[in-house]
Amino acid sequence: FIVMERLRGALLEESMGRRRPRPWNALRAVLRDVCAALQAAHDRGLVHRDVKPANVFVTPKGARLLDFGIAILRDHSVCKGAARLGTPAYMAPEQILGQPLDGRTDVYALGVTTYEVITGRLPFAASDLEGLLRHQLDTPLPDPRHRVVECPADVAEFARRCAAKRPEERFASAAEAASALEDEAEEGSLQVRLRFAPEHAAAVRAAVARLKAELGEGVEVRVRG
């Protein structure tokens, strides 16, 4: 028998394009969680190959990436013919063509997933599989703001860049993709982004610690990155 963690929540596909007004920060949090899961897999040399809303489960404690059943080691990822496993509506061009895969292949699928979650529909429609694959190879991802005008610019750009046809035009990693998402400031909050050289990291951490101490328990200070 197999013992697995019991999750409480719902699949991402069950809420796609339905909630209005859309909770954009909640979507950003889900995308960051998926990026973190992908980065952990990619750091171990694995390519998931089947990122899609049906494989993302959202719990009160965050999103989980499910179903690594067709994951493959990056060094053995050249698959042709029937061995080219995946879901066609989310497959990157290199996956369709049987070329070597890496983490950017999953990033592409996450871009298509993001578009679908925003709009409630897939970006490409065709009457047959050949037509769908042709779209995946040649047709740029539509701007989701054409269907959902209130979609924030950073989320739309996240989807567009993730799903670029050429791997080198995508985010270089899932971690880089996550860093492109910017939370909208909530009422009574202030966002501050700091950029610094690695040798200044200790000084920045010390400054943040002093800020927390000075503000006291009545103010929450969150650090990401």
Briefly characterize the structure.
The protein is mainly α.
General description of the model:
The longest helix is centred in the N-terminal third of the chain and has 20 residues, at 24-43. The chain is mainly alpha-helical and 225 residues long. It contains seven helices and five strands; from the N terminus they run βαββββαααααα. Helix content is 36%, strand content 6%. The strands form two sheets. Strands 1-3-4 form a three-stranded antiparallel sheet. The protein has a two-stranded antiparallel ribbon with strand order 2-5. It is globular, with a radius of gyration of 19 Å.
Architecture blueprint of SSEs:
Blueprint: E1 10-11, H1 24-43, E2 46-47, E3 56-59, E4 62-65, E5 72-73, H2 93-96, H3 103-119, H4 129-138, H5 153-162, H6 174-179, H7 201-215
Helix pairs in contact: 1-3, 3-5
Tell me the series of helices and strands, N- to C-terminal.
EHEEEEHHHHHH
Secondary structure class reads mainly alpha
The span between the termini is 39 Å
| Uncertain stretches | none
Q: Helical stretch count?
A: 7
Rough outline: globular
How would you state the average pLDDT, rounded?
87
Record the strand order, biggest sheet. Answer: 1-3-4
Q: How much helix, percentage-wise, in residues?
A: 25-40%
